[in-house]
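DM from R.C. (forwarded with permission)

"hey, sorry to bug you on a friday — could you get me a structure for this? deadline for the figure draft is monday and I only need the backbone to look sensible"
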Amino acid sequence: MAALDVPEPDFMADEELVMLRDSAATFFRRAAPPERVERWREAGQVERDFWREVGQAGFLGVSVPTEYGGSGGDFRHDVVLVEQAARARLEGFALSLHNVIITPYIQRHGTEEQKRRWLPKLCSGERVSAIAMSEPGAGSDLQSIRTTAIKDGNGYRINGAKTFISNGQIADLIVVVAKTDPAQGARGISLLVVETDEVEGFRRGKALDKIGNEAQDTSELFFDDVWVPSENLLGLEEGRGFYQLMDELPKERLIIAISGVITMERAIEETVEYTRNRKAFGQPVFDFQNTQFKLAECKAKATIAKVFVQDCMRRVLDGTLDNPTSAIAKMWVTDTECQIVDDCLQLHGGYGYINDYPIARMYKNSRIQRIYGGSNEIMKVLIARSL
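My reply, with the result:
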């Protein structure tokens, strides 16, 4: 039984979406049983074969037009897959990063030749993607990046270091944020696509040891005189990178909020089931008034978050989601997510601290939500600018 009594919005009431939801749930249950996901955690990354399997099933690039190898869907189809992957507990499988964040950069900002060159392999799973924004000295402040891509003949020579890069160990198509004109600040930023098997001077650093998301590889990347041809400049126009980033970041922040709502709902469902079955002082933990009050507060907050996020999804579909609204969604939902997961863990007692219980993993994995995609402090800055 769903924890939240929020009706499906009209724009999600589509038979095609219902069929996609059912087929994705069946596929993920069959292709990624718990023992396989556990191997991912032990290895610190999802194996490449799984990406190809997902591509063959038609779940990569679902919102990419069919002429570029995709399924011709839209943002709703991506949301369905993100939810089903989360409910299947596919920890470490960066589906939202690949489908919702990186592929749209090429789809929306690439030239026709670039779309035909890169999108089909992203949709098939032959290529796994990453985006290299953050640096050791520049996180949310993208204008302060130091990686450069200086013109050299009929191409660019990239130098710099990136860190906190999801899919960093396995990605072979990386969108690199670099300065093609360091003197121009934000106006000098460009996006260049690096195909790692076709360049020299690219190195992967160590996979970073994190407190959560153990199955998702997060890495350092190094670019030492990496030369790429001019046709790898996204859109073929220098200085457009910052604007391309700003165009896509609202949707990136919303998908983080969407995953936050999914986690809230899962946490409440797990906790209701646990407290109904766990007894203390001769009665189910659920029957204590404190338990009911805590869960009531969780449900109220999660309901508010879900209704707001659904409205933001509608705005994506009609093209009206702006930066301040997406910043509000990302900030408030992820802060609330962490509060709810913490309250639910507390109701599990000592078992909530044991990794065998889903709530423990939710607790560890939720914390990064308030940092990546722009820290919540930066979200407050964006919101304040709209006042």
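R.C.: lifesaver. The chain has three domains: 10-127, 130-239, 243-385.
me: no worries. The two ends are 41 Å apart (CA to CA).
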